[in-house]
Description:
This protein is of the alpha/beta class. The protein has 10 helices and 5 strands, in the order βαβαααβαβαααβαα.
Amino acid sequence: MQVIGAGMSRTGTMSTHAALERLGFRCYHMTEVARAGGHLEAWQRYLSGAGPMDWPVLFQNYEATVDTPSCLFYREIMAAFPDARVVLTLRDPDKWYDSLVTLASALEEFRPMALESRRLGQFLTITDEVGQRLTSGDFSREHCIAKFNAHNDAVRNHVPEDRLLVFKVQDGWGPLCAFLERPVPSEPFPYLNEGRATIHAFVREALL
């Protein structure tokens, strides 16, 4: 593990995932939780408190990670990989909250199907636990934004400056490539849509 994404979901993590992959890092994202063998079970066990997470085993096929649930455990991952650098993706808090509501409502549409799909049920159990850790049961705009800002402040305070890049995807290749010491690709930075249609397509392809 060389790059730890500490930024919350809905902060351009899908675009950052694609950018890191283009730079040569096999990157872990929430979508990998559903696709990689045994990862649904590993996260469900860990988030329920049933056992520890073996981070080197979980990430044995990856050089980078972004998005939830791993961003919530950036400290533990840093401890397991002390030489890794940290990227904190940021977004306007109000736009982030609106995007979070879109994600939650899109996933909720699939909840009736969870009784017929074990994998979907496991995935929703994980997203429910992640949501609880993020919101503490209060999904109001004011509370969620306060939690969002507190997380970002905690990352800034915990990660040494020389290991941290605070990054907005609008900044493009420049700061990311400089931080990771990689040449700037010739193609445009990948700005990917994380809207409702993308979420629906992922669930149908990976979980149903």
